[in-house]
Amino acid sequence: MQDILKEYGPALITVVAILALIGVITVLIGHDGSSVVGTAFKNLISGFFESAQKATKPLP
User: Fold this and answer.
1) CA 44, CA 30: separation in Å to the nearest integer?
2) pTM to 2 decimals?
3) pLDDT, tens digit (0-9, with 9 covering 90-100), for 29-58
């Protein structure tokens, strides 16, 4: 067991770090609009279009 860890330890640490990074990215970005980044991006786009519509309303 010690020989395996000595031989493959750095590779195992790299694999665990990459899997953790993929997990964090998946949680933040997510698969739908309920994720942290997805919700913020949706709110940003909605706010932009609302501001653009208010700015382009014709004068009475």
Assistant:
1) 17
2) 0.51
3) 776 666 777 788 889 999 999 998 888 877
As a whole number, mean pLDDT of residues 18-36 equals: 80
pLDDT for 59: 64
> What does residue 32 show for φ and ψ, rounded to 5 degrees?
-145, -170
Structure tokens at 10: 């750095």
Copy the structure tokens of residue 26.
């998946």
CB distance 9 to 3 below 8 Å: no
Please state the three-class secondary structure of the chain as a single string.
Answer: CHHHHHHHHHHHHHHHHHHHHHHHHHHHHCCCCCCHHHHHHHHHHHHHHHHHHHHCCCCC
Whole-angstrom Cα distance, residue 3 to residue 54?
A: 68
